[in-house]
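worker-03 picked up job from queue 'complexes'. Input manifest follows; two sequence lines, order preserved.
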Amino acid sequence: MTAPVIEVEDVWVRLRGHTVLEEVSLAVHPDDFYAIIGPNGGGKTTLLRVILGLLQPSRGTVRILGATGAAARREVGYVPQFRTFDFEYPITVREMVLSGRLGHVTHLPRRYGPIDHARTEEALETMGIAGLADRQIRDLSGGEQQRAIIARALVGDPKVLLLDEPTVYVDAPTAAQFYSILDKLRERMAIVLVTHDIGVLPEHVTRVACLNRRLYTHDTNEITPDMLEAAYHCPVDLIAHGVPHRVFSDHPEEE
Amino acid sequence: MFEILGFEFFRNALIAGVLASVACGIIGTYVVVRRMVSVSGGISHAAFGGIGLGYFFGIDPLLGATGFTVATALGMGALQLRARQQMDTIIGAVWAAGMAVGILFVYLTPGFAPDLFSYLFGSILLVPREDILLMGVLVAIIVAVVALLYQELQAVTFDPDYARVMNLPVERISLLLLVLIALTVVMLIRVVGIILVIALLTLPAAISRLYTTRIRSMMVLAVALGIVFTLTGIGLSYLLDVPSGATIILVSTLAYAGALGAERLRQGD
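worker-03 finished. Artifact:
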């Protein structure tokens, strides 16, 4: 088995007297499409923030490509929850995507070179927004804005892409289009997708975990009733609408 | 009215107005896009504390204001990193406490405080040559820092979380921006006074935002607008024989109202 791109080991997070994450361990491998589901407030975003180094865990370690330092985070592409930043900011799509290269520009003063610009055009092309490159981000539709945010995560040539609730604010066709893009990206990088909506899990997920303070997983791509019950603390109806394949194993009939 | 240009004080006033507009346009752009208007208001009113201390210890009040304002900005920045929720209240407290410190120390200073009023409401027609020199140096520093750190400042003011993921020194750059705001505020005290600083810092940039799509162009237009407003204000105040600082602010505010109204009409089509 190849070495994991992300290793989370026994991570605990306490925020304002509450335990948000408890004994969370997980490993993401280069060919993984890892889905983490769980209720709102279950610690999904917190776990991503710990992985990204935005939040220091009370206990435990996070290794990215085997390293714990901040420099390794350059290998991580991050797609934050939609609308966490100000869309009124005067910035064009191209500038925003280009800004994702800034972590790779280390000599001072930081200036972009030909590689940075080439990667930016590539990412714009990949996400199908090259024609919108000179528009302001506030003038784009929701789906276009989201593709711009993913393009920004792609320009850094990440080994792993973290997505936080990527489909919450987009309509169903846009979400479908979005998942087909993710399928293409899978060939180039590991993907970690966090969502509260168990109905949207895409076809090619390789691993699923449920997170509600603790992480429940069988290290497979199946959600089992015991995982869900443990995570949601109540029986959950395993009805999935429009799921292109069956992520749920057969579960015993109760009535 | 052109014979007035023969007087050195008037030429100094025009130069001071242009220098202040350059600083305002550049720093005001960040203040507007990062929505730091109230933080800047707190910093500028805290400057009065520095002026009071300056009087009390017998140093140049503007020098006292520089030290005190920079220290306040750094303090607010440190608090902002720790107590994001209560920031609103903290700004209000710093705002009032700075003024209170100023009033107390001016009161405790024996004798009469000569041009206290001019610090509060500005006196661009009385700016001495040395102050012009100091303003020139400050503008040079601001332009140089922003030119060198343009990409970092953009990344940090646009999406600080993402900037941190990219391993940029987000805290240091945020603090640096607050220090630049503090220095700009001190420069503006001479031109429009502590009470009116916030308007000149934000209005040209806010108008410019309506017509530009990038930080760089927003800065250029804001500088140009600032120059137009200050020079118009100085000219009008001379013609009508009214205070210059207040005239500059009213010219800017009217322009802002006009721009907003025009934008409304344009979008209504």
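worker-03 released lock.
The helical segments of chain A are 44-51, 93-99, 114-126, 142-154, 172-185, 225-232.
Confidence is low (pLDDT under 50) at residues 234-246 of chain A.
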